[in-house]
Design brief:
Two copies of one chain form a homodimer. Chain A is α/β, with parallel strands linked by helices. Helices cover 34% and strands 26% of the residues of chain A. In chain A, strand 1 (5-8), helix 1 and strand 2 form a beta-alpha-beta unit. Chain A is globular.
């Protein structure tokens, strides 16, 4: 039985998080749930409120993730609203918005809450937006090329060893195993 | 002294609301405040929570407004996130996202709360997105052309007599004056 749950409405994210934490010998359960999110430009603020909201429902130790794609030329758009923007204008829309400046970063914030201790851990990955979508993948993966790579996230075989999500979960795991 | 306050961080919206309600003999004060907003695709849900949050701070009868531009071709984008999208990709970004299908609507929801009674009133205005920005105005006004008009909102002299905001405030005023 898991003693730690990942609360999210997105099974793709859970799937990645489970595999990554498995590498640290942490077993992760899934609580599929649509959580209330505040509108804020601060991923940390969104994360804290969401973790508290999740705990009030689940009443078990949990982690949640907030992540976003931040595009320099677009002042950080879609940022905290990445999920909504993906569902509406999608990758095609993002590509239509860009000219030559294509620098972007993915940020993931993992927040742990067990009713007493609230801790957040972030991971970042710098890269750029491709000229067109390449590869099969969810979200913005087909249009994001990490720095020092020539493949999009959707093509990368080792995404779970280099992603923003891997970095934030690794920080979390090191803390969790020694707390 | 006003006995009704408009709570918003946006003085442009207050200015329009004050002028419109003046036509109904309702005096409107301004409480400039950044309110917490949840992320939701439902303007009504955002509005209710925001009105309650505003009242917990101000403790006086108040109205708040939630509005958005909903573009058909973009599945309703930018919708509830209009303010964020305007600040990041702006009108130029919206224009880059569109091809030939340009139908859009503005929606305004006015929510009243006095600690006991919570009521919402909505106003809609159908139109289309122009090919380029025309006129000086705030927000999406320079790119929105109401149906049966050949001018953008930014050029219209009678915006306050036909806008989504006018329609929601008129409904509110009729209710407020007879409650």
């Amino acid at each position: 039985m898991s003693d730690l749950f990942f609360v999210s409405s997105n099974p793709h994210k859970y799937d990645e998080a489970k595999k990554i934490l498995h590498g640290f010998d942490i077993k992760l359960g899934f609580s599929k749930s649509e959580l209330e999110e505040i509108q804020s430009n601060s991923l940390h603020e969104i994360a804290r409120k969401k973790a508290q909201h999740a705990f009030s429902k689940l009443k078990k130790p949990l982690i949640i993730e907030d992540d976003g794609l931040f595009i320099d030329e677009l002042d950080g758009f879609p940022g905290p609203y990445s999920s909504y923007v993906f569902k509406t204008i999608g990758n095609k829309g993002i590509l239509n918005l860009l000219t030559n400046h294509r620098r972007a970063k993915f940020i993931s914030i993992i927040t742990f809450f067990d009713g007493e201790t609230l801790e957040s851990f972030d991971g970042r990955l710098l890269g750029s937006i491709s000229k067109s979508p390449v590869g099969e993948g969810w979200g913005f993966d087909p249009i994001f090329i990490p720095n020092n790579s020539d493949k999009t996230f959707a093509e990368a075989r080792d995404k779970n060893k280099l992603s923003h999500r891997y970095k934030s979960l690794k920080k979390f795991a090191n803390w969790y195993l020694h707390k």
